């Protein structure tokens, strides 16, 4: 059996690359995106009834996941990258069918496009379906997951004066909550869990059209060095 699907829309998000995207949605509320609906779903009829809905489920394709042989067990970054668990016990992007699902906040509807926040989606992600979040069915008070009992612990993020000033200027230009986005994403500690960063090693990521660079003065602390427009 096989099926073929066509995307109903494309995500335009703050995440220009996979590095530093939070591991799940809603961990970075300042991570915004616009979901461009493709014909015929860009017409108002397809969105009737969404007014007043606060959250949506997005079913999407991990279009930038590495291809390769499928494994029955994976090594999730959350567990430090060493421990293997069954693929169906993980949210890894490398899976039998490269399909992901995320709950995101619906901020508004503008010209047939959905304005979203709290996304964990790479720019360009194809969306296969959109469904309204149904609180009475989707929120389970006594749900348990021993491998992921709580959100990842945040680490401290500090700024140099110059980097904070640069970030504020780009925030004004982009009209996006860039300062909060940088703090929220970096406090998730994007580097691989097994890496012991030397204090003089610099890391970087592109968010929107700016390059953010930082280092680890101590292994549990990030200091942002610069926020410059990508060339
Ligand atoms: N919430 C989704 C789920 O549970 O199916 C995604 C979880 S997955 C662990 C989140 C990671 O997927 C992000 O940190 C990012 O690196 C990666 N990612 C996001 N969009 C992607 C895409 N279009 N292709 C490949 N990887 C993507």
Automatic annotation (TrEMBL):
Pfam families per record: TrmO_C, TrmO_N
GO biological process, any: methylation
Molecular function as annotated in GO: tRNA (L-threonylcarbamoyladenosine(37)-C2) methyltransferase activity
Residues of the TsaA-like domain: 5-142
PROSITE patterns linked to this entry: TSAA_1, TSAA_2
InterPro entries reported in the protein's UniProt record: TrmO-like_N, TrmO_C, UPF0066_cons_site, YaeB-like, YaeB-like_sf, YaeB_N_sf
Keyword vocabulary terms for this entry: Methyltransferase, S-adenosyl-L-methionine, Transferase
Gene3D superfamilies: YaeB-like
CDD domains named among the record's database cross-references: UPF0066
Protein family: Belongs to the tRNA methyltransferase O family.
Classification via NCBIfam families: tRNA_TsaA (TIGR00104)
Protein name: tRNA (N6-threonylcarbamoyladenosine(37)-N6)-methyltransferase TrmO
Annotated organism of origin: Halopseudomonas oceani
Taxonomic placement: Bacteria, Pseudomonadati, Pseudomonadota, Gammaproteobacteria, Pseudomonadales
């Amino acid at each position: 059996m096989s099926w073929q699907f066509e995307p109903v829309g494309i995500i335009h998000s703050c995440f220009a690359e996979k590095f530093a995207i939070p591991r799940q949605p809603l961990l970075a509320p300042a991570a915004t995106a616009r979901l461009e609906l493709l014909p015929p779903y860009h017409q108002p009829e397809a969105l009737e009834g969404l007014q007043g809905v606060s959250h949506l489920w997005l079913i999407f394709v991990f279009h930038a996941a590495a291809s390769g042989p499928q494994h029955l067990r994976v090594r999730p970054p959350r567990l430090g990258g060493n421990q293997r668990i069954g693929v169906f016990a993980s949210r890894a992007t490398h899976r039998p069918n490269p399909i992901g699902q995320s709950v995101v906040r619906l901020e508004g509807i503008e010209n047939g496009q959905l304005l979203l926040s709290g996304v964990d989606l790479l720019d360009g992600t194809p969306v296969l379906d959109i469904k309204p979040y149904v609180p009475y069915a989707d929120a389970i008070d006594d749900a348990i997951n021993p491998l992921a009992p709580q959100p990842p612990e945040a680490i401290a993020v500090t700024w140099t004066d110059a980097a904070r000033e640069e970030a504020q200027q780009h925030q004004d230009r982009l009209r996006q909550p860039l300062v909060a986005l940088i703090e929220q994403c970096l406090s998730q500690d994007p580097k691989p869990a097994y890496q012991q960063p030397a204090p003089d090693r610099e890391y970087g990521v592109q968010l929107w059209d700016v390059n953010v660079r930082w280092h680890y003065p101590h292994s549990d602390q990030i200091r942002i060095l610069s926020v410059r427009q990508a060339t």
